[in-house]
Every structure is written in C-alpha cells, then in structure tokens.
Amino acid sequence: MLDIKIERTKAPKALPDKDDPLLFGKIFTDHMFVMDYKLGEGWYDPRIIPYQPLSLEPSAMVFHYGQEMFEGLKAYKARDGRILLFRPDMNAKRTNRTCERLCMPEIPEEDFVQAIKELVGIDKTWIPTKEGTSLYIRPFIIATSPFLGVRASHTYKFIIILSPVGAYYPEGLNPVKIWIEDEYVRAVKGGIGEAKAGGNYVASLRAQVKANEEGYSQVLWLDGIYRKYIEEVGAMNIFFKIGGRVVTPMLNGSILPGVTRDSVIKLCKDWGIEVEERIISIDEVYEAYKNGILEEVFGTGTAAVISPVGHLRWKDEVMQVNDGGIGDLSQKLYDKLTGIQLGEVTDVHNWTIEVE
Ligand code: COI
After folding, report:
1. Pairing verdict, β 83-86 and 155-165
2. Can you tell me the mean pLDDT for 22-35?
3. pLDDT at 176
4. Rounded to an integer, what distance in angstroms lies between the CA atom of residue 22 and that of residue 169?
C-alpha cells in the first residue's frame, strides 16, 4: 500500500462548461500523481501534486532513445453518484508486460490501481456527465537518467494525468473512414508492437498523415512481412462481421492486446457469438465485400470505445460497409459496454471498480 503525500492546488482551474464538446485530450485537471524510481532503491516518494510542468535534464534518456510507456483507461460518474473505473487491473498487468519488454521497472498492480483511485478521488468534480463523456486517465513512465549511452535508464518517473474527454473521433459513434496501409508498417513480430510504447505511435504518424490527406481518419495496418494480414488500427483493435461470423486478428506478438478487445470478445461469448481470433488477410476481407457478406467492421479501444467503420480504402478499391451506417452488433456492443461502464446494466464480470 502506497503512502501517498497530497499537496492540493491553491489555484483550482475553472471546470469546463457543461456544453464544451471536450475534444479528446486537450484539457487537464488540477492534480497529477508522481512517483520516482532509482535503481537499487525501487519506487519512492509517491505524491499527488498540482498539475504542473516537469523539470528534466535535456540529457534525460527519454528524449533520446524513447524509453517510455503509457496506458489509457477511463473513470465514469454513474447516475447514482458512484465513480467507476473500468478494468484497471488489466491496465496494471499490461503496464508490467510493457515494462518488461522495454527494460523498465515494474509497478505492483495494487499500487498502480491505488494511485489511480486516489488521484481520481481528488479530482472527481472533473468527471463529466454528459452522454459520451468520461474522465480519461493517462498513466505513463519515462526514463530520466541524464545519459547519452544506449542502455536502460537507472531512474524513472511514473506519472498519472487526467483529462475530461468526449468522443475520440469527431465522428462520435458515426462510422469512420479507414485507410488500409500497404507501404509503411507499424510493427513486426519480435519488435515492440504488443507493448504500449510511445514508439509504436510515432511509427504510425507518416501513414496517418497520408491517410488524413486522402480524407481518411485512421490507418489499418497490415503485417510487416507479407503486407497481407490484418493487424490493428493505430488507436484501436479491429473486428469484422463476415457472413454472420465475428472475426478479429489473433494476438500474434505485434498487435496491442486491447482491454476493450478482450471485453468485446467476452460480451459476444455471453450472447452466444463465438469470436474467431485468427489470421485474417485483406484478400479475405475484400472477397467478403465482393460477395456481399462483409456485414460490419468496427474498431475497439479505450479512447474510441466502439467505432464503426463505414469505408475501407485498399489501394484503389473503396469498400463501403453496411451502407456507411452503424451496424447492429456495433451498436449493441457500444450500448452494453457504456451501460456497464456507467453502472446502468448488470456487470456480471465484475469489470467495474468503485472509487470510494
Ligand atoms: C486508448 O484507447 O486509450 C489509447 O491508448 C489509444 C490512444 C493512442 C488514444
């Protein structure tokens, strides 16, 4: 159990207006959590302090070799006033898998969850309540040793910041347009694709710019060797409904193991729909489209929740899915997930955890 020191802000910021659309990740709350690490000593000095800039040496290793990881989860205010976190234990476990891969120190799962609970409790007035909004929680760890040699840092900071957010995409639940990338790749097996590392996201930017210029909001990545097998979208995992069957790429070492992905697979199972986690090629998707059995495509992610895909562009082909509308399964999954997250439907899996 962490003994977290608390220093409250003397200058609380104005809360966003009730009608503010809360564009994703632009506004930050009054406080942040910080904890330091030193090789030989472990994690020390857990504290909640006013949200403020960091002071780091320009030689801090994170600036040079990108030794950094992050997580994303959300807190919700239920109608009965309870504050709920959605599966924070999954983020704690994934943090430690990422840390292992990036040679960073792990954090005990219970400390990770405790730090989030205490910070969210202190800034609870910032949790927005309008439909489709939540408090996005961004834990991250950075390498801080002032050193230019390539090795793992000896010191780190674990920080958590909070941001009241609306939908990740301006489209909201309306279908997004996705560009299937066959020139650049995001990750290969044996690399860091399954880690929640900032490096995976910088690797995605060039193709993202290309997709944006063509009027598409996100990139769907193909595998790094054959440029043929579907991997994931930059900020989401991806699901296809083909001829009544639900298919998603299996976790193969280069795909992020999403918490929403896992939840969707379990919800489908509850409803008697078996999700096929397997290799799926772009040719199979295109074939299904040509045969009129590509019924739904949707992305899953913490930030995006469920994001229906209305258009897929692959080379010169444009596949319009479900007439560009929201599919029944996508809508049902969105309603169920957000219902659980907001404490409005029975949480049979005990996914939500209350912040006292
Ligand atoms: C999330 O969904 O929380 C993510 O971490 C994706 C992020 C790049 C917005």
Report:
1. unpaired
2. 96
3. 93
4. 11
Residue 143 φ/ψ, nearest 5 degrees: -85, 125
Whether 197 and 142 have beta carbons less than 8 Å apart is answered as no
What is the per-residue pLDDT across 200-224, written as a single tens digit (0 to 9) for each? 999 999 999 999 999 999 999 999 9
Q: Does the beta carbon of 301 lie inside 6 Å of ligand 1?
A: yes
Tell me the angle at which helices 259-270 and 328-341 cross, rounded to the nearest 10 degrees: 110
Domain end marker among 115, 138, 165: 165
Number of structural domains found in the chain? 2
Question: What was the pLDDT predicted at 356?
Answer: 80
CA distance 193 to 231: 10
At 297-347, the pLDDT tens digits run 999 999 989 999 999 999 999 999 998 899 999 999 999 999 999 999 999
305 lines ligand 1 (CB under 6 A): no
**What separation in Å is there between the alpha carbon of 41 and the centre of ligand 1?**
31
Question: Is position 346 within any domain?
Answer: no
Tokens standing for residue 24: 């994703």
Do 82 and 52 fall into the same domain?
yes
Q: Among the residues of the chain, which ranges form H helices?
A: 62-65, 88-101, 109-122, 198-202, 205-213, 259-270, 282-290, 328-341
